[in-house]
Amino acid sequence: MKSIDTVIEEYRNKLFTIAKEDGLDSHRTLIASQHLDELLNLKMNESQHHVMEEK
Q1: Among candidate residues 2, 1, 4, the one with its CA nearest the CA of residue 40
Q2: Is residue 19 within 8 Å of residue 29, measured between CB atoms?
Q3: I want to staple 6 with a disulfide (CB 3.0 to 4.6 A). Which of 2, 13, 25, 27 is the partner?
Q4: 43 contact partners, CB below 8 Å, separation of at least 6
Q5: b/e sequence 13-34, b meaning 16+ C-beta within 10 Å
């Protein structure tokens, strides 16, 4: 299974490709950006959860 960091990096690259092909204001770029935001939020929540467990 891929790590969340690997998935985020792959999706970031996919977002850049979509933005380059379709433009920054395209619907497809917006959707890809939202998906990347969701992944980043998952990563952030996971990190915060681990910090709380250590306390």
Answers
A1: 4
A2: yes
A3: 2
A4: 4, 5, 8
A5: eebeebbeeeeeeeeebeebbe
Residue linked to tokens 């929540």: 45
Enter the pTM of the model. 0.82
Average pLDDT, stretch 42-47? Answer: 90
- The tens digit of pLDDT for each residue in 1-33 reads 889 999 999 999 999 999 999 999 999 999 999
Domain architecture of the chain: domains with CATH: 4-54 (4.10.280)
Query: The tokens of 1 are what?
Result: 């299974």
* Tokens 């980043």 -> residue: 40
Tokens of 21: 């092909």
